[in-house]
């Protein structure tokens, strides 16, 4: 009897009382930010402890390609804001020590974004200290907010140079084999090396020369700049010139000149596991977003992922979320990396393209096509529930930008309404909604990359400050942490709704209606425990939509969670709805009869 009472008490425990560690990846609402562009909590670290002009320190808040001063202290001080938005996890852009400035003369920019790593073991001093990162993680955890780190294994900063050239073209294994110096007619080198497909320590011990394609060298001033120290040896890099992002160069070429790590080498695999496992040990973080995951050979991931998951479990982190960046809008290409590479999940670029297209007036069947491919993922629809979904990011650009680009004559009010609809799709459809900082404040941006990386604190960058924002008269020249902004309020409302209903986080999704024209897109999601149905209907048209939508014949009375819903079906299996232009409705049925 006591055991039965105990079990009943546990089952009755509210989700809020459970540890944040108990939440599954699909339970989260993720907020993504670049620390340099979020909030400046300590102006003393703006120059990273360096002295000189911007080409030395990397700091120039007037230029969109340099450090602006945001840091980890600033993020910690703004956790109230993140929590108010309804985010339950923060994906923090890379915080590792970066090469402050690189690039050809006259085209220099800074490592404010975090992807030019030199030291993988410490926080970049522009962003703060290891202790301040620990303080951030602890403060977030105290609120039940998880912290995901953005990590890179594909490349480091551009340190290695080639004797033959500066901006070097890719040289293939066929034309420049490992066994010859500088081409098939060159001197014999690396005797006995059986190629990079034989990924054993014994084989790679025979790869002693790195000058098979080019002659790599490390400038004297940077010979010890990388940490751990083994990363300073060119033998652990591919050294074949710039990737064309096609064929073998996709995994073996330098990413825009960055030093491409030879991830086939067992020493590299072991080293990377120790590097990133160490961050789990030291800080108790909750997940990794993996940059440029598609540009790393699959064998690396099949070794790395299980080791990292084991490290997390050893630290009592049972739901460590790993998601790779595969920048491809084709669901089949995305799914391949979960099947071949065995990545647990990938960022859903297909979802992003479809939502932005539908929100801009294309046929709603574009979304149906994305969801029809869910069985392709390793683990099928269950894995699709865990794919981080997004509609804008720091590389591609913002949702509002894509909608405005497609509809340049749309009024600000129409653009706001369509952007609001896009966020509703993000928060209510399957997957893990990932909000890019600034989107909730109506940021539009001017394009991709640097043009989509406005700061949340007051900007001194003219290229940002002339931007118009949605839903406000403010500009980027002032701080934008307005919890009353219409998009902020909409996201906060939907986040609360999502977290209150397991059907909207863990529930399977069934397509109810889509067409090749703008208008209705509808799905049902089902509570995994009770089987209760929630019908979600979106209208992407500029005119109201009315009609009948299929529902489960066992669903009886309906309640409007948001929008307008009838109290009962018109007939078993059919619900009559009216959805306003750019509106949506969420209609919840009770337990199936």
UniProtKB/TrEMBL annotation:
Cleavable signal peptide: 1-17
Keywords per UniProt: Hydrolase, Signal
Superkingdom classification of source: Bacteria
Pfam families linked to this entry: Alpha-amylase (PF00128)
InterPro entries in UniProt: GH, GH13_cat_dom
GO MF terms, alphabetically ordered: hydrolase activity
Residues annotated as domain Glycosyl hydrolase family 13 catalytic: 32-498
Keyword Signal among record annotations: yes
Name listed for the protein in its UniProt record: Alpha-amylase family glycosyl hydrolase
Species name: Sphingomonas agrestis
């Amino acid at each position: 009897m006591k055991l039965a009472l105990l079990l009943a008490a546990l089952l009755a425990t509210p989700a809020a009382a459970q540890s944040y560690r108990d939440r599954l990846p699909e339970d989260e609402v993720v907020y993504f930010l670049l620390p340099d562009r979020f909030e400046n909590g300590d102006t003393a670290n703006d120059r990273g402890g360096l002295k000189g002009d911007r080409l030395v320190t990397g700091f120039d808040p007037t230029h969109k390609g340099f450090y602006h001063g945001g840091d980890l202290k600033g993020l910690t001080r703004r956790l109230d804001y993140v929590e108010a938005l309804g985010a339950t996890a923060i994906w923090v852009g890379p915080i590792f020590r970066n090469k402050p400035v690189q690039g050809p003369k006259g085209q220099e920019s800074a490592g404010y974004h975090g992807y030019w790593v030199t030291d993988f073991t410490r926080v970049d001093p522009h962003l703060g200290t290891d202790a301040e990162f620990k303080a951030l993680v602890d403060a977030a955890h105290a609120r039940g907010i998880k912290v995901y780190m953005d990590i890179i294994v594909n490349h480091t900063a551009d340190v290695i140079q080639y004797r033959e050239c500066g901006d070097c073209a890719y040289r293939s294994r066929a034309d420049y084999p490992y066994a010859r110096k500088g081409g098939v007619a060159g001197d014999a080198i690396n005797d006995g090396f059986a190629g990079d497909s034989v990924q054993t320590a014994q084989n790679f011990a025979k790869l002693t020369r790195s000058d098979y394609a080019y002659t790599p060298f490390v400038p004297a001033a940077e010979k010890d700049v990388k940490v751990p120290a083994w990363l300073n040896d060119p033998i652990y890099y591919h050294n074949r010139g710039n990737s064309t992002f096609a064929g073998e160069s996709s995994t073996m070429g330098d990413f825009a000149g960055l030093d491409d790590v030879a991830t086939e080498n067992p020493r590299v695999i072991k080293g990377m596991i120790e590097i990133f496992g160490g961050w789990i040990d030291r800080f108790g973080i909750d997940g990794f977003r993996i940059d440029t995951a598609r540009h790393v050979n699959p064998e690396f991931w099949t070794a790395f992922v299980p080791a990292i998951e084991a490290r997390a479990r050893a630290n009592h982190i049972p739901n460590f979320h790993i998601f790779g960046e595969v920048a491809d809008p084709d669901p089949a290409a995305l799914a391949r990396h979960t099947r071949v590479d065995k990545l647990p999940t990938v960022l859903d670029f297909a979802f992003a393209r479809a939502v932005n297209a539908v929100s801009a007036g294309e046929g709603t069947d574009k979304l149906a096509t994305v969801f029809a491919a869910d069985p392709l993922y390793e683990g099928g629809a269950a894995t699709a529930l865990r794919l981080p979904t997004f509609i804008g990011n720091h590389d591609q650009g913002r949702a509002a930008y894509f909608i405005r680009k497609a509809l340049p004559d749309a009024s600000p009010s129409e653009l706001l309404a369509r952007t609001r609809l896009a966020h509703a799709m993000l928060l209510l459809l399957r997957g893990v909604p990932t909000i890019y900082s600034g989107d909730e404040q109506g940021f539009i941006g001017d394009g991709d990359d640097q043009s989509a990386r406005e700061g949340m604190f007051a900007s001194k960058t003219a290229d940002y400050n002339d931007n118009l924002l949605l839903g406000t008269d403010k500009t980027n020249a002032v701080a934008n942490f307005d919890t009353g902004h219409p998009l902020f309020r909409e996201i906060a409302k939907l986040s609360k709704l999502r977290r209150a209903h397991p059907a909207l986080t863990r529930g399977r999704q069934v397509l109810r209606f889509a067409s090749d024209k703008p208008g209705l897109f509808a799905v049902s999601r089902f509570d995994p425990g009770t089987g209760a149905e929630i019908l979600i209907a979106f209208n992407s048209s500029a005119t109201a939509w009315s009609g009948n939508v299929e529902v489960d014949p066992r669903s009886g009375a309906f309640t409007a969670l948001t929008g307008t819903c009838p109290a009962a079906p018109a007939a078993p299996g059919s619900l009559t709805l009216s959805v306003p232009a750019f509106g949506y409705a969420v209609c919840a049925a009770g337990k199936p009869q």
